DNA sequence: TTGTAATATATGTAAATACATATTTTAAGT
DNA sequence: ACTTAAAATATGTATTTACATATATTACAA
């Protein structure tokens, strides 16, 4: 369905630029709700899932809170509390960094790895359904988004 | 800058599909922060701004809460409280719908229109800077997003 | 008409978010 | 060494969000 139909927009957008912004925001929400539906079953928020994936991507190299923020999709300042939540669930470890007592080393635990694998498996199983673009189109979409932000 | 650089991703994405999802979420946040910076000056949230724009697009035809939800980018259920906020600021009117005492007619006020015009002017003035794609590219981006969701 | 379901919105509440500020530790300058 | 600034994270707090439930009204069926 076209964007205009989905949000029941009767009159045309002022510019194709404005339409693009709305389209990105709308598509983002579409992704968010799709993902969240599955994440909720695992009792984890989208943000927590994102942080876990970041840590998992580091293998066994720990990251500090600031390094996590750098890698997060939305740079807000409560990464510290997100890590708290993950720590309480036993998915990450957190200890004072050697050589800098201000910073802390955060690492995914083996429990966290097992959990993440399970979640990711469940989510990607569903994502296969919505594989509506071909390889070249995905690449073009990525290129355009990168260029938009440039 | 490429997506990988921006979020300091060292290893490649598992698939171009996964990368696209992350790219859309990242770009959405990029837009959100850019917009919010200006909206805050006007003491209005992104969601409230969105609702005002929806109402403005209707000229003088009022919308019910449910019709507003249909047109919102993210369909959450607190449109009622968003309208409350806008009502408190005098930007919308709200009265019982004739013929259905459950529903209510929400309409943008003239104060709301003046306000919206001011905000939009301020935002679009800045958006001109970041006009990094050409017309055809914007259209292609819109087409790909629509297809992705299909 | 009377009970039951559906509709439209409002409200209660726990959790998450944004933003400012505090705390602790390190760095740098004199 | 001492002062001040910067860095890294934690905490406080008001607002927003998500989700469930409540209230009021309408529609429908027996």
Architecture overview:
2 copies of one chain form a homodimer. Chain A contains 7 helices and 2 strands; from the N terminus they run H-H-H-H-H-E-E-H-H. The first copy, chain A, has 150 residues and is mainly α. The first copy, chain A, has a two-stranded antiparallel ribbon. In chain A, strand 1 and strand 2 form a beta hairpin. In chain A, helix 3 packs across helix 5. Chain A is elongated. The mean pLDDT of chain A is 90. Chains A and B meet through helix 2, helix 4 and helix 7 of A and helix 2, helix 4 and helix 7 of B. Chain A binds a DNA duplex (30 and 30 nucleotides) through helix 5 and strand 2.
List the helices and strands and how they pair.
The structure is a homodimer of 150-residue chains.
Chain A: H1 3-6, H2 16-41, H3 46-56, H4 65-71, H5 79-88, E1 92-97, E2 100-108, H6 110-127, H7 135-148
Antiparallel strand pairs in A: 1-2
The structure holds a DNA duplex (30 and 30 nucleotides).
């Amino acid at each position: 369905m076209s964007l205009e139909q989905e949000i029941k927009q009767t009159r045309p957008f002022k510019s194709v630029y404005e339409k693009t912004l709305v389209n990105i925001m709308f598509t983002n929400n579409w992704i968010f709700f799709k993902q969240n539906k599955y994440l909720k079953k695992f009792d984890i928020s989208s943000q927590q899932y994102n942080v876990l994936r970041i840590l998992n991507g580091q293998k066994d190299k720990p990251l500090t809170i600031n390094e996590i923020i750098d890698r997060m999709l939305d740079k807000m300042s409560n990464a510290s509390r997100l890590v708290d939540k993950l720590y309480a669930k036993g998915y990450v470890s957190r200890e004072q960094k050697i050589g800098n007592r201000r910073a802390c080393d955060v690492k995914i635990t083996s429990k966290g790895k097992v959990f993440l694998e399970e979640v990711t498996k469940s989510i990607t199983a569903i994502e296969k359904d919505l594989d509506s673009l071909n390889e070249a189109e995905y690449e073009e979409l990525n290129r355009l988004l990168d260029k938009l932000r440039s």
